[in-house]
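not sure who needs this but someone in the group chat was asking about Methyltransferase type 11 from Rhizobium leguminosarum bv. trifolii so here u go. i didnt clean anything up, its just raw.
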Amino acid sequence: MPSSFNVESADGYERLMGRWSKRLAPLLIDFAGLADGDRVLDVGCGTGSLAFTLAERPGLKEIAAIDYSPVFVEAAKWANSDPRITIQQGDACALPFEDNRFDRAMSLLVLHFVPEAAKAVAEMARVVRPDGVVAAAVWDHYGGMSNMRMMWDTVVMLDENALPLRRKYCFQPMMRPGEMKACFIAQGLAEVEETSLLIRMDYLSFDDYWQPIAAGEGPLGKYVAGLEAGRRKAVDAAVRAAYEAGEPDGPRSFASVAWACRGRVV
């Protein structure tokens, strides 16, 4: 699963996205459903938001988690204290498990960074038993991530080189309405449903919002880290002005929407 997500550090990812994926994880779990005795696979576990939220359900028998990034795998292993959880490095497009191994496979905020996303969905379906469930969620970057669109829509006014990057960010795989549903159906899943999940991202200050991006985390951070000094200073100032919106610096809250999809293995 060669990923298009830029990883600098596990701590940086936690500040950029991990703290918010923890809020999203329970919503995906409720949408996917669980039953006592389930064996569940977390595909693209990152620092463990989904796996550790699953572990709050005492009735689960097993939680297996994989991620392509050794940085994330090491961090998740370090944080794990639940014997039901196993974490290993792995490729979402070539899962290291036999057919029909799990009752459910879930993927949280991963498929849009997988170039061969349909293959990852097919692999999730392969390792889930008949009548089991495959479920996934990805951010709606175009219409559901106002905090990140704020940054891109600001920087394209200063740097025309950001225009193709904004387009790529807004229309990554699985992000258009109905796209995940069509993919799930094409991979042979039945009773496929797509919905949207809403959380809020609450920042204490501009620095709380901007620091992990400024440090180079994720696709936004990769762009910012590549700017020459003068343009970087202008971008920093312009994004701060967009965040503050004419009011003193301080807490801000942004609605954030993810597309979610589930299907039954036949």
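also The first strand starts at residue 39 and ends at 43. if thats useful
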